[in-house]
Write a structure and sequence with these properties.
heterodimer; A: mainly alpha; 10 helices; B: elongated; disordered N terminus
């Protein structure tokens, strides 16, 4: 069953249809929230709030965009609101060294052990925090692999060209910082 | 040339960055996420929660907060602002009157004399002016030039009777009026 058909049934009151939509898109929703917030617990709460908000607003969904893009836009706004909230700012102020985007998987094998080790991942995570949010957010959305540039642009509310430029610029800045730390671009 | 058209050499570092970023965000949501969402959108019987149930707690909370805020504001206003009954009464200038000898006698030395009535801006009505009233349709008579004024109505001499109602300033005292206490000298030979 396509998303459009499930949405139509859910709008008619079929909660099981909405449950299927949640199952299909919960990973993308969760990763979008995680990209913004950097904390698994916060990402889970934000994803939950966003999906509940999507259910409440389902009656107003007219199908102009894909359901996935629409629900990810809601998720993005919820996650940004959460990041800007006083509680989150206080938490970052109290625990500035807390590990953002903690390792969810083991580092895979790579051609160069130095570039695949946990130290390299730690450096990348630390340098991610130094990037401005305007560049970091699109970079992490792109890295999740769940979005095309068009979808990403719609979620972020920016033109597609701007989304592409921000991803390229974020990668360039990250690379420059790693080169200054002594990593070599072979 | 747009950034997307630029062809950069892909180095091992570029590939490592891309791979690391994907590993960082390749996190799966917890399995309970769907169950938690469905628990909030359906009731215990699995029926969808209605829109009313979803937002009425928020509306009730907002109404309570507004009521508390209004109570606080009204308490502050009543405590720190003068009550309606204590507002100064608007002074309506009585008809102009010349200061009388009785009024002058009440003035205490050292105080500024009370303000007297100055010439009114509009001349008093007399039969002559009434007769010269402009008939309908004709150009109005030019009013006499007004005295330069700062907008304060000229003070009239107070009613001499009203001065009797003025209570003396309880704080002010005249040392001259204080009773003098005579202390008799002490006789050291016969205390």
């Amino acid at each position: 069953m396509t998303d459009a058909e499930l949405v139509e049934r859910a709008q008619g009151g079929d909660t099981a249809a909405f449950g299927q939509l949640v199952e299909r898109h919960r990973a993308a929703v969760y990763r979008a929230a995680f990209a913004v917030l950097g904390s698994p617990a916060e990402a889970e709460d934000a994803a939950q709030d966003a999906l509940v908000a999507a259910y409440q607003k389902l009656g107003g969904f007219r199908g102009e965009a894909a359901f996935k893009t629409w629900v990810l836009s809601i998720t993005w706004r919820h996650a940004l609101d959460r990041r800007r909230s006083l509680a989150m700012r206080l938490k970052r102020f109290v625990h500035p060294d807390e590990d953002a985007w903690p390792d969810a998987s083991e580092p895979g094998p790579g051609p160069d052990a130095l570039l695949a080790g946990s130290e390299f991942r730690g450096q990348v995570r630390r340098l991610l925090r130094t990037l401005p949010a305007k560049l970091r957010d699109p970079l992490l959305l792109w890295a999740s692999g769940d979005y095309s540039y068009d979808e990403m642009a719609r979620v972020l509310g920016i033109p597609t060209g701007t989304a592409k430029w921000r991803v390229m610029e974020a990668r360039r800045q990250l690379k420059d910082k790693l080169l200054r730390l002594g990593y070599v671009a072979k | 040339m747009s950034p997307s058209d630029r062809e950069e050499p892909v180095t091992a570092l570029d590939m490592a960055i891309e791979r690391t970023l994907r590993e960082i965000v390749a996190t799966d949501p917890p399995a309970r996420l769907t169950a938690r969402v469905m628990a909030r959108v359906t009731d215990r019987d699995g029926r969808p929660r209605t829109a009313i149930r979803a937002w009425w707690p928020m509306v009730a909370g907002l109404a309570a907060a507004a009521a508390i805020a209004m109570a606080i504001v009204s308490t502050v206003v009543s405590r720190y602002l003068p009550r309606t009954g204590e507002a100064p009464v608007a002074v309506i200038a009585p008809p102009p009157a010349q200061p009388t000898p009785a009024t002058r006698d009440r003035e205490t030395p050292g105080r500024e004399p009370l303000a007297t009535v100055t010439a009114s801006a509009t001349p008093p009505r007399t039969p002559a002016t009434r007769a010269a009233r402009t008939p309908r349709g004709a150009a109005p008579i030019a009013a006499p030039p007004l005295e330069p004024s700062i907008g304060i109505a000229p003070l009239a001499a107070p009613d001499p009777i009203a001065l009797d109602d003025i209570a003396p300033n309880p704080v002010r005292f005249d040392p001259i009026d204080m009773p003098r206490i005579e202390i008799p000298p002490i006789d050291v030979r016969n205390p």
